[in-house]
Amino acid sequence: MSITAPEENKDAVRELTAPQTERYSRHIVMKEVGAEGQKKLLGARVLVIGAGGLGSPVAMYLAAAGVGTIGIADADEVDLSNLQRQIIHRTADAGKPKVLSAKETMEAMNPDVKVIPYRMFITGENILDIIKDYDFIIDATDNFQSKFLINDACVMAKKPFSHAGIIRFQGQLMTYVPGQGPCYRCIFKEPPPKDAVPSCKQEGVIGAAAGVIGSLQAMEAIKYILGIGELLTGYLLTYDGLEMQFRKVKLPSDTHSCPVCGDHPTITGLIDCEPSE
User: Distance between CA atoms of 170 and 236, rounded to whole angstroms?
Assistant: First the structure.
């Protein structure tokens, strides 16, 4: 599905500086981006929920691309077991809040970027207030309760977002844009019973799989901001790292009966999620 670019940011960048022109030169030479596209990126606001395996590559690529304001939300601290896949953190960051470690890495990478840390669990009470000022939301969480909460909040607030999940050598992602395709709940209905689906902690995950899927989430956000290409609206992209196969699955287009984005929604409030481990 073709992209409708977001409304112009009132704080959009007027002109690129000489250092910015050099930094983003590989963007500027592309006809799909150019100087005007780079100014859109610098004026954009993206929220990354989760500073772990998926959130690490997402946040780093968005910062490198010059997305001007990046919010990052996570309540956890860096642990040594994170470092096999959460590349935004270093060994010396063990014990540090993930959002502060991520902020330091992103701002060291690109001083153009303003990073807003939210050291908290995202809940039904705070999510609408947090997402309201952002153009695009990244679901980089690792549990079903959070994913359904993010979906429902974004639908209610009319915010586009990218969903993704990873385990072992596999990953998947889809993008929701209001009025342009099914939401996460259209496809997966409701969270599975507790412990019905193994977690990454139980089954493991190859760190590079997080890099593949997280990078694709960053690509979806960048395309949305620039208003170019085709988003994964109406499709689920799956990845199998062992077989090195991608599969793009068309999702049902009838969203009328969805309990949150349908014609007669029955979900009109937000349910708190359980904190992830």
Answer: 13
